[in-house]
């Protein structure tokens, strides 16, 4: 007999606001499920009070050119939630890689979508082996690129003009950012633009629900990051566009 867990549900309806941080995730065939799940789990736990899992403080979509399931490297399929469209609907787009030796070709539509993101000045993050996609498109030429140590040779042999870095959790230049898969669950909030999300997630400040600090007020992080900034509404939304070199 199933127990009664209704008391764990949210006590208030979600406020009708646009999420202040919107993430689009475009995985390649045979993407790595662990790094994707670590990244999304961070977003999920930051998106709502407690463990309610509603997309309030941030939102995310799994993107592709069609709604057919995308097979992960472990064999589990993932069904996209939206098709490639206007990249300006997102604050960041994550191209999530996996097996470089996959027998399934990366769709041309994914390459074209990443190009449209760069043309629209939407920051792009290469996660796991997603930076190889960025290198193939020529966006990393002459730049430092964080890769897992086991893939440094693959980067150097295929893209000798890219500076492979294996001792950093990530690297960034203007609107192109990249992290090896091992880093996605460690410090995803260090990327430029995640600071507002981090503040909404753990800092003491105004809750969207009752005008007071949310459930997280007793986490021990109070005062470290300051109050949460006022959440912009649909008409007053400001988009972050980092143009300077930073480190993830």
Task: Detail the topology: elements first, then pairings.
Elements: E1 22-27, H1 33-46, E2 59-64, E3 70-71, E4 77-78, E5 82-83, E6 92-96, H2 108-119, E7 124-127, H3 130-136, E8 144-146, H4 152-158, E9 163-165, E10 171-173, E11 176-179, H5 195-202
Parallel strand pairs: 1-2, 1-6, 2-5, 6-7, 7-11, 8-9
Antiparallel strand pairs: 3-4, 10-11
CATH topology: Rossmann fold
What is the global morphology?
A: globular
What series of H and E elements makes up the topology?
Answer: EHEEEEEHEHEHEEEH
Strand content: 15-25%
CATH class: Alpha Beta
Radius of gyration: 19 Å
Into which percent range does the helicity of residues fall? 10-25%
Head-to-tail CA distance between termini:
48 Å
Number of strands: 11
Which architecture would the CATH scheme give at its second level? 3-Layer(aba) Sandwich
The overall pLDDT, averaged over residues, is 76
Report on the structure:
The chain has a 7-stranded mixed sheet, sandwiched between helices. Strands 3-4 form a two-stranded antiparallel ribbon. A two-stranded parallel ribbon has the order 8-9. It has one domain: Class I glutamine amidotransferase (GATase) domain (Rossmann fold, 3-Layer(aba) Sandwich), CATH 3.40.50. 19% of the residues lie in helices and 16% in strands. With 248 residues, it is an alpha/beta fold. It contains 5 helices and 11 strands, in the order βαβββββαβαβαβββα. The longest helix has 14 residues. It is globular and about 60 Å long.
